[in-house]
UniProtKB/TrEMBL annotation:
Organism for this UniProt entry: Filifactor villosus
EC number: 5.1.3.1
Reactions the enzyme catalyzes: D-ribulose 5-phosphate = D-xylulose 5-phosphate
Cofactor: how bound: Binds 1 divalent metal cation per subunit.
Cofactors, names only: Co(2+); Zn(2+); Mn(2+); Fe(2+)
Purpose: Catalyzes the reversible epimerization of D-ribulose 5-phosphate to D-xylulose 5-phosphate.
PROSITE patterns found in the cross-reference section: RIBUL_P_3_EPIMER_1, RIBUL_P_3_EPIMER_2
Protein name, UniProt field: Ribulose-phosphate 3-epimerase
Keyword vocabulary terms for this entry: Carbohydrate metabolism, Isomerase, Metal-binding
InterPro entries, A to Z: Aldolase_TIM, Ribul_P_3_epim, Ribul_P_3_epim-like, RibuloseP-bd_barrel
Active-site residues, Swiss-Prot/TrEMBL: 34 (proton acceptor), 174 (proton donor)
One Pfam family recorded for the sequence: Ribul_P_3_epim
Pathway the protein contributes to: Carbohydrate degradation
Amino acid sequence: MIKLAPSILSADFSRLAESVREVEEAGCEYLHIDVMDGHFVPNLTFGPVVIKSIRKKSEMVFDCHLMIENADLYLEEFAKAGADIITVHQEACTHLHRTIHRIKELGCKAGVSLNPATDLSTLEYILPDIDMVLIMSVNPGFGGQSFIPQSIQKIKRLKENIEEKGYKIDIQVDGGVTAQNIAEIVDAGANILVAGSSIFGKEDVGVAVRQLRAAVVR
Ligand code: DX5
Ligand code: ZN
């Protein structure tokens, strides 16, 4: 079963709680929360304060994608704010192994994300310790970009590697996921699909969610 993770980056922040309720009612399993620091990526979003306030409004799995430097300094705050999954970037963590174990100590699931140009081999020695790999299929920082086609090959290779080793690791894909390409992404091996503009960018969130799910089945 695939899981949908609507990214609130594309939501209307003047009615954030309502938007979150809409995707929850539409049956989306995860809420994807994009945290940006203006250093690791050229954009700024929000931090634990916002997460804490929407936590009271939703039972969804809070999937926090940290696009920040010095993540170690903030992990505890994100966990306390209500994160269920904390994903950090391989490129932004000098002591990735330590960071992952700290996330788990805090009671969260640990994910590691790779930028489009980062090789899968960078994860070889930490794969046994993580719960999820997030393959970025756009350069992180903004919603509404086009899916980078080489990502398909990367997802396939990762899936093969995980199966070969017998690990239980989710493969999440983030960036440019649409009803047109979601089937190919799932066929390649992804099981958690982030969708910003193809859910929150649509007039009717419920219809958008149904279209994405129907496209996977076809
Ligand atoms: C980009 C973010 C994504 C973004 C995806 O840096 O990590 O989660 O919101 O947006 P879409 O689905 O519009 O590409
Ligand atoms: Zn994201």
